[in-house]
Write a structure and sequence with these properties.
Structural class: mainly beta
Number of strands: 30
Strand content: 35-45%
Shape: globular
Radius of gyration: 19 Å
Helix content: under 10%
Largest sheet: 9 strands, antiparallel
Distance between the termini: 19 Å
Length: 353
């Protein structure tokens, strides 16, 4: 199915007063005509429009035409995820000898920071110029069960080489855990153009973290070689997505953390090519892991832009982050943040044709 030309949403369609604060949609545009949309509600990356081979702007990220769609959806399309991205086993962890209990919202576990997580609050927004916007949020001590007053800043920047840069910074007044990410769902053939099974994917990860039935890492780090998780060479998403493999069955497809090979922010950790559009997306990050999710639980219950439904596996996510359940697994890279420390993280999605 060919990509339908989907217009940039109107900022007025995202204006609301929520909890006494005004919501806004910020539109950023570079010299090539590429555009992104960011809203201070939930820190959402609300849309990405990339020029295709014919010069038309193609919407490559799932999203909505108005605030109603954003408020009613349940799949975190474009959301800022915090305080803790991914899962924490049984919704509890211990810091400095004290146990903290979180909201249980994913089977027996806590997912993406709990019920009223960072994607459900209104951030303070400041558009710096036509290509950058900054969002800030003050998360109070024990919000969603997490200790410490946390001050968070996110900067979204659209560069002239067609890269979307997302920079995070946070400080706390009490020892806490933090793991921030963005949960944009991509379809490089165009939003609403059909499934993503023929997208070509390469991930610079020789290992991944297998999970139990509830999607919590077992604690092991295992090789991808000889498994459906081997994307060290370009492979279509659909090639092994229904393989007779226990891990694939647990996730109903790909919903796993890849242990990225040694890298820095200047080295791409993943590359995806839209089979119909030819649009290429490269992922750069300073995070140690990346959750690759293939929309296995998209269920056609949300109307996205272009009056399409979010059918199963019509988008994928590449969430750069620390590993799931790290607060309970000391062998994983630490997600602990202490007073007088500064949490910093950066991710870049760069597009070309």
């Amino acid at each position: 199915m060919a990509a339908k030309i989907i217009p940039i949403p109107l900022p007025s369609a995202f204006e609301r007063v929520i909890d006494g604060k005004q919501t806004k949609l910020y539109l950023l545009k570079n010299k090539n005509g590429m555009q992104i949309a960011v809203t201070n509600y939930g820190g959402y990356l609300a849309g990405i429009w990339v020029r295709g081979k014919n010069g038309n702007l193609i919407s490559v990220a799932m999203g909505f035409d108005n605030m109603e769609g954003l408020l009613n959806q349940t799949n975190y399309y474009g959301a800022t995820i915090g305080r803790y991205a991914n899962r924490i086993a049984k919704g509890k962890f211990t810091l400095d000898g004290k146990e903290y209990n979180l909201h249980i919202n994913n089977g027996p576990n806590s997912l993406h920071g709990g019920k009223e997580n960072f994607s459900h609050v209104v951030w303070d927004g400041n558009q710096i110029d036509n290509q950058k916007v900054e969002l800030t949020y003050f998360s109070k001590d024990m919000e969603e069960g997490f200790p410490g007053n946390l001050t968070v800043k996110i900067a979204y920047r659209l560069t002239d080489d067609n890269a979307v840069e997302i920079s995070y910074e946070a400080t706390t007044d009490k020892t806490t855990v933090i793991n921030l990410t963005n949960h944009t769902y991509f379809n490089l053939n165009g939003e609403g153009s059909g499934d993503i099974l023929d997208h070509l994917v390469q991930i610079a990860a020789d290992n991944y973290t297998p999970v139990d039935r509830t999607m919590i890492p077992t604690g092991k780090i295992e090789t991808v070689k000889g498994t459906p998780f081997d994307f060290t060479r370009p492979t279509t998403i659909g090639n092994n997505i229904n393989a007779d493999n226990e891990q694939i069955k647990f996730g109903s497809g790909y919903d796993h953390n890849f242990v990225l090979n040694p890298h820095d922010i200047h080295t791409p950790v993943a590359k995806v090519t839209g089979d119909k559009s030819g649009i290429i997306m490269e992922v750069y990050t300073d995070e140690p892991g990346m959750q690759f999710y293939t929309g296995n639980f998209m269920s056609g219950t949300n109307t996205i832009r272009g009056d399409k439904m979010d059918e199963k596996r019509t988008a994928f996510a590449m969430e750069t982050q620390h590993f799931p359940d790290s607060p309970n697994q000391p062998q994983f890279p630490s997600t602990t943040l202490k007073p007088r420390e500064v949490y910093r993280s950066k991710t870049i999605y760069k597009f070309s044709v």
